[in-house]
Every structure is written in structure tokens, then in C-alpha cells.
Amino acid sequence: MSEQSRTRPSGSATALNETYDTALLDLDGVVYAGGEAIAHAVDSLGTARDAGMRLAYVTNNALRTPEAVAEHLTELGVPADAADVITSAQAVARLIAEQVPEGARVLVIGGEGLRVALRERGLEPVESADEDPAAVAQGYGGPDLTWGRFAEACVAISRGVPWFASNTDLTIPSARGIMPGNGAAVEVVRIATGAEPQVAGKPLPPMHRETVLRTGAKRPLVVGDRLDTDIEGAFAGGVDSLLVLTGVTDAARLLAAAPRHRPTYVDADLRGLLTGQPEVTEADGAFGCGGWTASVQGGVLALDGDGAALDGLRALCAAAWTDAGDGSCELEAGKALAKLGL
Predict the structure, then answer these.
(1) Which terminus of the chain, N or C, has fewer Cβ atoms within 10 Å?
(2) 28 labelled catalytic
């Protein structure tokens, strides 16, 4: 089933780690949250890696360097090298390097990961709009990024310097809850200047290109927790995706997904890499998975049967997405989800 016509999650007779050669894994909300490993992540990734699947870690967070991310993963029990990590900082650095002279100065509004990525492309990071930058690069700078950094960006952009953003995720997960992401910071500069940045990160093509160039993946599977970055990025790149419910996307958001946000597969966590996926069947306008049957009755999603909650959710996805067609589902789903405990 093509991504463009997806009306239900797909099934797979074989384990996903056998079907795909490379897992392109998001980090925050998938492998870890707030710096701590998510349940089942370490063991699942180890098993997939030992069975021959390549693991690549693809993050829109431009703050940390690939070396720092790899070190953190290794400390968590997920052995990784810097070459296994692809960041939006790397993607935006390549985008900038293709448009400015070699060795050009770039005003950095962000953290060390962005500076390292720019130097990798032969560009010179600078701190002031008065240092004659050829571009402004904005990436997530952590909670300590000061208001003065936004002011420097605004001054340079108002002088006509082209503006680039690593990504526009409005939020980022943490151990304490949802925090403002780089997209929130980009909005500050956008409101002040009226300008629009060129954006590199997921779900846009520069990030997908960076990932393919660095991994050489032939049959990749995107694994993520966000519909508007991970899953939409897979859609834009024409590759399959696995949504795990360990991050920002809950069952209600999944049911309401527009076509570009509908994943190929859905599972609770990274254990889904190690298993096949059940088929969702259709008969007389109703959709079945496991012991569940889902349908639309009077503008409401209805669910009958019993079994694993995820199978019920997959059946509900099929009913909701089919009814919505090319739009977003607006059906009432509260009672059906309550029956699943979701």
C-alpha cells in the first residue's frame, strides 16, 4: 500500500528487523526521554543490531554533537559511534554550505552541535551580526539560550543575511515534561523580523538526504514518536515508518492523522522492531485486527470484541482513516479508546 493511499496500518509476516536493512531511529521519545532510556529500548535495539540490522540515530535536536550523542547512547547500554548519529545540525550545515562561499562566516544561534557541523563543512561560526556573516544558522540551544542571541539573529536578518533553521519542532520532551523546542525560538525571530528561514530538519527533504548520504540505507525504516516530523518525513521520503507510542503521540492524535501523518506500522515501543505486524482485515465496512472489530456508526468510532489493546487501536485506525479519506478524522473516539485503556 502506498503512503499516499494509506487507510490502515500495514501487516508484516516477518519481523521488521528482518524486513528492513536499516532503522532510522529518532532519539527523544523513542530511545530515551530526559536522558534516561525508555523501557525496552536497550534490549530491543541490542537484539536488532545482533541480528544484522543497522541502527542509525536521526535527531532534529541540534544541540549536541554526534560524538556526545553516541557517548550518551553507549552509557545507556546502546553502543554507538559518532558515524551512527545524524543531526539536523549536519543537514542545515550542508544546506548552508551549498549556498555560501567556502570558508564563509555563519552567525550561530544555538549550541556546540551546530558549531561543529558548520566547521565540518568548512564554515566559520561567529557570534555577532557585526562580524559580516554570510548566513544565520539557528538551532536548539538548550534552556540557557539568552534573549541576546535572538537579538543578534534579528539584527543580521534585518540587514538581509539569509536565515537557516535546523528544525522547527515546537516542543521537545524532557524528564519533567514537554519543553519549548527550536521551533518556538524560531517563532520569536520570525515575529520580530517577518522573515522566513530555510529549514533543514525532519520532515523536510534536506534531512532525509543527509540521512541517506551518511547511512547508505537501501531499505530503511523510519522509527519515531512524532507524526509531524518522523512520520511525515518518512512520507516525504517515500519510505516506510514505525510509530512507537512512547513519546508525544497518543492514540487520539493517531486516529486523527491526515494521510502524510499515517505510519506504516504502529507499536507500543521498540519491541515492535523484533516482531511481525498483524494484518487489518475489512468486511462489510468494518475492520478487524486480533479479536477486535472497528466501524463507524452515526459519526462515532465503535469498537467490539476483546484482545490486545494495540490490535484494537490498529482496527480503529483503519476505520478512522478510511472514513477521513484525504482529510483528518473528526469522529468521536472517546468510548472506543476507553475500552482499550488508551
Answers:
(1) N
(2) yes
